[in-house]
């Protein structure tokens, strides 16, 4: 193999997200970056993982990176292709999904997500795609992972719109509500960005777990709209392997359209 | 297609051209644009390019949806221009928006198709969606275990679905992503089925588990090869991803959008002319190699 | 089968051996009888011969059902003897009965499978069924259009389904009457899938729309050719109607019933011995000529 | 063709029931006698009729008389074979069924039916099959036809159990209730027995329409547990044709097991 270019920040993000899926069994794949991260995980740390696409596919085995979550390559060779009624009712709400992988335009410190509008709902500054399946994935998947680029516009103290609930106003209240209302899931566990990896502490608040190679703590803090909880010593996110980078560059996204 | 749209799609109707990424009847959308239908309420889980084009052409007054975008590419710019006040052109009005999640939209069609007054589901808790859509409500379980969310039935005036094949009676068979084509068709007052191929009834009856919609509920069957382009039909052709990206550029500019509609919709009489304008070799490039299903045996019981 | 029943069916469990006339796992029912399970609640839309046999063998304390009979023949006499006080034998108790309509039973499984607190439906108005089953209740629509009926979720401890084929991971494919096998399986805490044929995963993946239950929810896959006899498997063998009529005679007489259970269940180690006792030529007589489905193309997208 | 035996009463019943289906489009077929009548109609007066079996089959084209409503012959060559959830939800409750054809153990003068128990529900004298799909067919099919043998045990003034509603206590109240509660159907229109054919008058009460050849008005009246409404002149039910009898005897029920 010839000398590899060093990993870009997007590549660092995708690799860290893929690694977070190690050992997971059933993953619900969202549109965009989650799609790439999950397909990388399937080729590396989680070959046994079943990919579930909200389009109606269980056990997808895509021969190419799906261009969208409705790409025909997710159907051919899959274990089961079903109606969206079955997918959302039997698989997701029925409690069969271990990890829901979501993106978003805005996230707050409790992992609540906005994919609906920037600005006022009735007269938005920017109209975003909306929930799609995100709202119900956030409620029903056993665990939620988030992948998104971080900036003061996206990591905000107050969402313009709460599309998908995370830990609401804190873990204790969230856990009570989730139990009492029969939600299937326990909420977000991991957030991966182009700069760092975050978890959630026992209060349900986001907490820095590791910083990607090349990023600094100052940079991380200055791109978050609230004071992020930070342990005394922040480890560095392990670097991508040559094979991970090769898979992204040669197999999953050869045109560089997504990463 | 001309007759089917003329007979079954009227100004002011609620229209659902369904298909989740797969089997989207662009041919029907373009014919609706050509016939200059107005004040339509366009229902669809994922309004994509075809609805962006219909909105750009002035057909729509309202959207009922759950995800608004150009899948895998980005935004629907014509719709955004009718949604964001800052982008609104002079004389234009904002589109009415009625918004759900995917499961909610599926549930609306299911309730409509099953003639139920509501569909219960475990979405929406602690989301802001019910705050902006008063039709998302709570229902009390009669078994003492609290409240759950509900959406109301959606019964479109007309549902338009695309599929691989049907017989002349309109018995429709489909494989690959099934979306909510069945539920939308059963919920609708009228159904137009558009297919790549008309097959003898014996082909349908040889594999009855493959039928998603019976001719009983179909008002018009339209034979329209490549009628779903630039979306795809499993086994027949791939998504024309280059066009999905191209539309992102075209649709950012109202003038370019208008020019595209003129060249590819208004100035063409029908889908056959659209296909001919691309040329047969173009579609060959979108045709995948074969991946056969295998055969199962139903047994001949006499 | 022996291991699957031993591991997954316990005394006191709620068990659903589903299959509407088609694909009824008699093999599983007989193994449950052999392993002398007791106090089972047997759920099933149409308790037929297999439940009559299980009741006769003393496995059951309760039935949850919607139609009780020997389809096309008449009554289930062993069950009737445990239902009609005048026919009850000394020392026997009446079976508990929890009764719905077909749509109600389907709805119970759907609610269980979708993790819903209830399933709404337009049955039961002015029927006496809600009077004798307090679990059939009314729910108020949140859209101001009155009340509708509801049934509660049913989540069996174990669902047992029979089908034409599965791979070793338990991805199950089925054609012909689908009954409520999918809904019962998704509703259940544990699933046993019994199939005529174990096929390579590639066969399953060549036709993913044919999959009704994924291996994800299946706890045990059992290869049991002719495991549904005397019911049938579409394309594989016909219903053994002579036996359905014969059972009408046998089951009227407790002693004859006991003798039949001894000869065909207790004294045989497993299904293979049952099949061997009939002899291969017997099953040849039940095999229909071929009626192939035809092939569809999914396309190879790389 | 050799000399035919005259029609039996069961054959008269089946033929009269089949003829009542003339011109009907979508018929939901119940177990037992309706199954034979409907299959005869499909071969005679209603070749275009779509047979719907509650087992999950639309547009059945059975090559033999189905032994039960779940016979594999109803699947092979059918237009659509679907789950029972779809059959009861989309087809029946969805309002797509024109005629539901039912049998029963007891019927009253308003066409209410009992298929559940004779005697007390909790301690029955005879335990019958129960509703199956009958209760929802009675509520949701646009029109109901009934076929059953008549006797003072089956044509009763008071049902032991009302499994499936007919015209309840009379047409006016029934129509109001059906409309207000959103029932799909308008209730029973025809009852065919081994002795006669009945309709329903504007009060929703059963009324004699014709008497089969060989039966008498006295016999009809003496086998009904209430005073049946009878027009001044009761016509005779038209006799079966040779072809109808041939179809029953040679094709539909050659062993005479059902008719």
Give an overview of the whole structure.
The complex is a heterotetramer, with two copies of chain A (259 residues) and two copies of chain B (302 residues). Chain A has 259 residues and is of the alpha/beta class. Chain A has one domain (9-252): Glutaconate Coenzyme A-transferase, CATH 3.40.1080.10. Helices cover 25% and strands 19% of the residues of chain A. Chain A contains seven helices and 13 strands. In chain A, the strands form three sheets. Chain A has a nine-stranded mixed beta sheet with strand order 4-3-2-1-5-10-11-12-13, with helices on both faces. A two-stranded antiparallel sheet of chain A has the order 6-7. Chain A has a two-stranded antiparallel sheet with strand order 8-9. In chain A, strand 6 (106-107) and strand 7 form a beta hairpin. In chain A, helix 1 (9-19) crosses helix 2 (33-43) and helix 2 (33-43) packs across helix 7. The radius of gyration of chain A is 18 Å and the shape is globular. The mean pLDDT of chain A is 94. With 302 residues, chain B is an alpha/beta fold. Chain B has one domain (2-100, 155-284): Glutaconate Coenzyme A-transferase (3-Layer(aba) Sandwich). In chain B, 31% of the residues lie in helices and 19% in strands. Chain B has helices at residues 2-8, 26-34, 49-56, 77-81, 102-113, 129-132, 181-187, 201-205, 241-252, 254-266, 271-278, 280-284; strands spanning 14-17, 40-43, 60-65, 96-99, 119-121, 137-140, 147-151, 158-166, 172-173, 190-198, 211-213, 220-223. In chain B, strands 1, 2, 3, 4, 8, 9, 10, 11 and 12 form a nine-stranded mixed beta sheet that branches. In chain B, strands 5-7-6 form a three-stranded antiparallel beta sheet, covered by helices on one side. The mean pLDDT of chain B is 97. Chains A and B meet through helix 3, strand 9 and helix 4 of A and helix 5 of B.
């Amino acid at each position: 193999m010839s000398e590899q270019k060093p990993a870009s920040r997007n590549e660092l993000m995708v690799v860290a997200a893929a690694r977070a899926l190690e050992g997971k069994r059933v993953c619900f794949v969202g549109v965009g970056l989650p799609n790439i991260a999950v397909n990388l995980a399937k080729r590396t740390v989680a070959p046994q993982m079943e990919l579930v696409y909200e389009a109606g596919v269980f056990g997808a085995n895509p021969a190419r990176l799906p261009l969208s979550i409705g790409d025909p390559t997710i159907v051919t060779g899959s274990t089961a292709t079903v109606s969206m009624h079955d997918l959302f009712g039997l698989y997701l709400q029925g409690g069969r999904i271990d990890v829901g992988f979501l993106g978003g335009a805005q996230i707050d410190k409790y992992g609540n997500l906005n994919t609906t509008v920037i600005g006022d709902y009735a007269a938005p500054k920017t109209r975003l795609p909306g929930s799609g399946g995100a709202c119900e994935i956030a409620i029903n998947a056993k665990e939620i992972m988030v992948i998104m680029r971080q900036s003061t516009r996206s990591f905000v103290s107050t969402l313009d719109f709460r599309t998908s609930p995370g830990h609401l106003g804190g873990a204790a209240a969230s856990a009570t509500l989730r139990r009492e209302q029969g939600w299937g899931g326990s909420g977000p566990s991991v957030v991966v960005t182009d700069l760092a990896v975050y978890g959630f502490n026992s209060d349900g608040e986001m907490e820095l777990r590791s910083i990607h190679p090349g990023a600094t703590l100052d940079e991380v803090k200055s791109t978050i709209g609230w004071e992020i909880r930070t342990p005394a010593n922040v480890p560095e996110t392990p670097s991508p392997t040559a094979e991970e980078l090769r898979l992204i560059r040669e197999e999953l996204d050869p045109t560089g359209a997504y990463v | 297609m001309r007759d089917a749209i003329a007979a079954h799609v009227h100004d002011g109707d609620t229209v659902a051209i369904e298909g989740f990424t797969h089997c989207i009847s662009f041919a029907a959308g373009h014919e609706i644009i050509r016939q200059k239908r107005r004040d339509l309420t366009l229902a669809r889980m994922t309004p994509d390019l075809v609805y962006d084009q219909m909105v750009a052409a002035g057909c729509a007054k309202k959207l009922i949806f759950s995800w608004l975008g150009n899948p895998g590419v980005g935004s629907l710019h014509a719709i955004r221009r009718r949604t964001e006040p800052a982008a609104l052109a002079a004389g234009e009005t904002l589109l009415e928006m009625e918004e759900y999640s995917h499961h909610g939209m599926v549930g609306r069609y299911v309730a409509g198709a099953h003639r139920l007054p509501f569909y219960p589901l475990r979405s929406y808790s602690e989301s802001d969606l019910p705050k902006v859509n008063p039709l998302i409500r709570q229902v009390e379980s009669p078994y003492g275990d609290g409240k759950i969310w509900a959406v109301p039935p959606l019964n479109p005036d007309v549902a338009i679905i695309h599929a691989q094949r049907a017989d002349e009676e309109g018995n429709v068979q489909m494989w690959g992503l099934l979306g909510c084509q069945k539920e939308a068709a059963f919920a609708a007052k009228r159904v137009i089925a558009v297919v790549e191929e008309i097959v003898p009834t014996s082909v349908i009856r040889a594999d009855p588990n493959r039928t998603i919609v019976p001719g009983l509920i179909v008002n018009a069957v339209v034979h329209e090869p490549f009628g779903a382009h630039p979306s795809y039909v499993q086994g027949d052709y791939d998504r024309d991803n280059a066009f999905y990206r191209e539309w992102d550029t075209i649709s950012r500019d109202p003038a370019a959008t208008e020019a595209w509609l003129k060249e590819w919709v208004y100035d063409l009489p029908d889908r056959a002319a659209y296909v001919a304008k691309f040329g047969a070799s173009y579609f060959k490039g979108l045709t995948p190699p074969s991946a056969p299903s295998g055969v199962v045996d139903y047994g001949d019981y006499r």
